[in-house]
TrEMBL record:
<dbReference type="GO" id="GO:0008270">
    <property type="term" value="F:zinc ion binding"/>
</dbReference>
<comment type="function">
    <text>Inhibits all the catalytic activities of DNA gyrase by preventing its interaction with DNA. Acts by binding directly to the C-terminal domain of GyrB, which probably disrupts DNA binding by the gyrase.</text>
</comment>
<dbReference type="GO" id="GO:0008657">
    <property type="term" value="F:DNA topoisomerase type II (double strand cut, ATP-hydrolyzing) inhibitor activity"/>
</dbReference>
<feature type="binding site">
    <location>
        <position position="20"/>
    </location>
    <ligand>
        <name>Zn(2+)</name>
    </ligand>
</feature>
<comment type="subunit">
    <text>Interacts with GyrB.</text>
</comment>
<keyword id="KW-0479">Metal-binding</keyword>
<dbReference type="Pfam" id="PF03884">
    <property type="entry name" value="YacG"/>
</dbReference>
<dbReference type="InterPro" id="IPR005584">
    <property type="entry name" value="DNA_gyrase_inhibitor_YacG"/>
</dbReference>
<dbReference type="InterPro" id="IPR013088">
    <property type="entry name" value="Znf_NHR/GATA"/>
</dbReference>
<protein>
    <recommendedName>
        <fullName>DNA gyrase inhibitor YacG</fullName>
    </recommendedName>
</protein>
<dbReference type="GO" id="GO:0006355">
    <property type="term" value="P:regulation of DNA-templated transcription"/>
</dbReference>
<comment type="similarity">
    <text>Belongs to the DNA gyrase inhibitor YacG family.</text>
</comment>
<keyword id="KW-0862">Zinc</keyword>
<feature type="binding site">
    <location>
        <position position="35"/>
    </location>
    <ligand>
        <name>Zn(2+)</name>
    </ligand>
</feature>
<feature type="binding site">
    <location>
        <position position="39"/>
    </location>
    <ligand>
        <name>Zn(2+)</name>
    </ligand>
</feature>
<feature type="binding site">
    <location>
        <position position="23"/>
    </location>
    <ligand>
        <name>Zn(2+)</name>
    </ligand>
</feature>
Length: 71
């Protein structure tokens, strides 16, 4: 009597989430959901360039930016 486990193995390593939205590589926990600081910076630049502009929010209204960013 043999019991076989036919559960397919998942080649993809366990990661923090879906692939990096910038380049599609597996994300790094430190930079999730991005794979690297570079990709995080790319996304940040998109924010700053208005690609993900949030209606009703003016950067000037914030006055100063100490680096902390709320989602
Ligand atoms: Zn990436």
């Amino acid at each position: 009597m043999t019991t076989r486990d036919d559960t397919p193995k998942d080649d993809a390593p366990k990661t923090a989430g879906p692939a990096c939205p910038i380049c599609g590589k597996p994300p790094a926990p430190a930079y999730a959901p991005f794979c690297s600081k570079r990709c995080a910076d790319v996304d940040l630049q998109r924010w700053l360039s208005g690609r993900y502009a949030i209606p009703g929010r003016e950067e000037d209204a914030l006055g100063q930016d100490d680096g902390s960013r709320e989602e």
